[in-house]
Amino acid sequence: MPQPNALLPPAAVVEIAERLRKHGHSAWAVGGAVRDALLGVGHGDWDLATDARPEEVRRIFRRTVPIGIEHGTVGVLARDGVMYEVTTFRRDVETFGRHAVVAFADTIEEDLSRRDFTINAIAWNPLDDSLLDPHGGLQDLENRRLRTVGHAPDRIAEDYLRVLRALRFAGHYDLEIDSETWAAICAAVPQLHLLSAERVREELSKVLARTRRASTSLELYAKSGVLVALFPELAATRGVEVPNTGADAWAFALAATDAVSPRHVLLRYAALLHAVGLPIARTRDPLRGGWRVTGHETIGARKAEDVMRRLRSSNADTERVVCLVMRQSDLFPPDAPDAGIRRWLADVGPGLVHDLFRLRIAFYRAHPVKRGERDLLERWQKAHRVMLAHPVLTLDGLAIDGDDLKQLGLVPGPRFGEILRVLLARVIDTPELNTRAALLERIRIEGLDT
Question: What is the CB neighbour count within 10 angstroms for residue 388?
Answer without folding.
Answer: 8
